[in-house]
Amino acid sequence: MLLALDLLGIFVFAISGGLVAVRNQLDIVGVVVLAMATGLGGGVIRDVLIGAVPPPALDDWRYLAVPAGAGLVTFLWHPAVERLERVMNVFDAAGLGMFCVAGALKAHDYGLGPAPAAALGMLTGIGGGVIRDLLAGRVPVVLRSGELYAIPALAGAAVAATGVELGVRPAVVVVPGAVLASGWRLLAFRKGWTAPAPRVSPPR
Amino acid sequence: MLLALDLLGIFVFAISGGLVAVRNQLDIVGVVVLAMATGLGGGVIRDVLIGAVPPPALDDWRYLAVPAGAGLVTFLWHPAVERLERVMNVFDAAGLGMFCVAGALKAHDYGLGPAPAAALGMLTGIGGGVIRDLLAGRVPVVLRSGELYAIPALAGAAVAATGVELGVRPAVVVVPGAVLASGWRLLAFRKGWTAPAPRVSPPR
Amino acid sequence: MLLALDLLGIFVFAISGGLVAVRNQLDIVGVVVLAMATGLGGGVIRDVLIGAVPPPALDDWRYLAVPAGAGLVTFLWHPAVERLERVMNVFDAAGLGMFCVAGALKAHDYGLGPAPAAALGMLTGIGGGVIRDLLAGRVPVVLRSGELYAIPALAGAAVAATGVELGVRPAVVVVPGAVLASGWRLLAFRKGWTAPAPRVSPPR
């Protein structure tokens, strides 16, 4: 059940990577590599930082097959995939919630305190998209668009990290953490809420 | 003997990094850093992912001296080095074959199954070039050019990874794996074979 | 005392990351993430390469709070921060000296020889800025500007790495290594000394 949810999140993230690759006119290698990097990148960065190597993504062939398949699907049928993009946003928000909570809990398991665990949870949620954008030659969307994406992820991860630090069982903190991150993200997307940008100084 | 071949592959990859740096008007630091990152990057990424740290590139001074020397050679005599570029393509294909097979075998040694080992073998072959291009501010060539580069590397790595998984001795799988990757790469380069790109949807 | 110096260096580097983010019109997430990546990136790369994971930056909340605070300060008061930039150059040079020496000594502690330790010391000093520039979508300044930044860092790290290799106590090699790197960097900045760039071949 958890594995299926995890693979679903990876699949959705990977589709977003494949679409960015298609739009930037990469070839089939680029589409599959961006799909895999987007689906797996956040978790792999977290695993390397906490010393959980080789990461599970390299221990179980399904973790490679799912994002590679998402890349091939996007390569072959990208016009159809693009028409599903509005629906995908719901799944992407769900994936974000799962990834940030799972990242925070795994960091806690490896002995990290609540603040680093929350930071690594956020990184698990946004890391794949950052790698995707770097490979596609653009400044990561999550750092510049003003969309509420990283902040809900950090909030959800912080709830989970604080909960387990206080002795609450992981299974209990998963739901509020993931719902907070996914719900806030989705509401912000629907309502157009944005994160603040620096006030621009007038040019001299 | 193996060490000499390995260092030769690193040298050739490093030259390609140095040339990209010169063409992008980097300074001497950029030329040497790009040479070293291109020569060593693929292997270092693999080693970090499987937990083989510190990587051998940091345990033996020759692994630093060879790509640093390649960078300095490129910095000082880049017009001459550029004239050798056609010859270099042969050595680059040979390096690709060695790197992808060595990467797959090392991943197998660290307990990875055949699919992840093949993926890491490919990553060993293409990783240095990806880092080179990111540092030079361009979308990695291997992801967009349509050249057959990553696919032959994956094929060669898959042959080696499957072979050792089936119990064949490493020394026996090296040759077919490397010859497949290098030969396919070189033939594709000569004949102009390309990997498919996504069909572009007509603009609406 | 050492912790305070370390945190000061991280703070100054983080401010430079925040300023680059503001100038590239990133949002608040981008400003804080670039500040943290610039302040912590060099040390984290070193720690991952030598196997010192989780890195101290994830074990002590102050290592996260200081660069995050620097990011928020830059976000809120960037016009004032920019006016301090000339002063900041002095602190940045001091941070560079400390980082390259501390990086070299830590690499030595993990069993690396003097050449790799010196290389990792330099990487500790410049790595954060490289990540900052990649995330901001520009070719790393340290690779192209011709400014003497990486070379003084390498020299300082080499002094420290060679010293401890010869049996000198770490406390004794810190000062000459850091003074060499910081002083050379600052003098070069003041006097406009530059590193050589490749001679450009005339276009054909």
From TrEMBL, chains A, B, C:
Domain Glycine transporter: 4-78, 90-161
Keyword Lyase among UniProt keywords: no
Membrane protein topology class: Multi-pass membrane protein
Subcellular location: Cell membrane
Domain of life where this protein originates: Bacteria
Keyword Transmembrane listed: yes
Residue ranges of the TM segments: 28-49, 61-80
InterPro entries from the UniProt entry: Gly_transporter (IPR005115)
UniProt entry keywords in alphabetical sequence: Cell membrane, Membrane, Transmembrane, Transmembrane helix
Family, similarity comment: Belongs to the UPF0126 family.
Name of the molecule in the record: Trimeric intracellular cation channel family protein
Organism: Nocardioides panacisoli
